[in-house]
Amino acid sequence: MIKASQAVPPGRPPTPQPAAPAGEANVHRRGRALILVVERDPDVRELESYFLNEAGFDVDFAADGAEALEQTRKLRPDIVITEVLVPKLDGLALCRTIKTDPLLHSTVVLVFSILAVHLRASEAGADAFLMKPLADRRLVDTVRQLLLLRSSTDRGGEIA
After folding, report:
1. Which of 79, 87, 92, 128 has the fewest Cβ atoms within 10 Å of its own Cβ atom?
2. CA angle 1, 137, 118 (to 5 degrees)
3. Contact 93, 75 (CB under 8 A)
4. Could you report the per-residue pLDDT of 81-128, keeping only the tens digit for each?
């Protein structure tokens, strides 16, 4: 499991871009990877959207864990990034549910939290854990690394 943390860079990014149309599972705009972000803080959502869009990813959002599970089933994102403290279905329960669902278990889950719960995230099946505050380079590098590992395992490779 990947672990990391760094400081928040200064500046305020623009408003997040709209998501790809519903029902287009694994068909992303411009062939870009789709990242589903589950985050309760609108400022953090905005920052994540900006950094991930600038890095070449499409970003969609869920307001709570229950909506995130529904969106994961519908959109089949490449990665789900979830905060632990989200309403209706907390991030760890969301991760556990995704990882035990036969149709979703290969979905990559990154737990991103202010809480030091990397061990609990690992036990829930998370593929990686990042500690807040948000650092653009650390987030983007982790997402890229997870996509590379996923691509490697999709081709029959093993994650060490």
Report:
1. 87
2. 25
3. no
4. 999 999 999 999 999 999 999 999 999 999 999 999 999 999 999 999
pTM: 0.78
User: What residue ranges in the chain does DSSP mark as E strands?
Assistant: 2-4, 34-38, 58-62, 79-82, 108-113, 128-131
For the chain, list the domains and their CATH numbers: 2-9+30-151 (3.40.50.2300)
Distance CA 31, CA 66 (A): 27
User: CA–CA separation, 52 vs 58, rounded Å?
Assistant: 7
Q: Which single residue is written with the structure tokens 């672990």?
A: 3
SS3 content of the chain, % helix, strand, coil (to 5): 40, 15, 45
Please state, in angstroms and as integers, the Cα–Cα distance from residue 132 to each residue in 69, 77, 82, following that order. Answer: 23, 22, 12
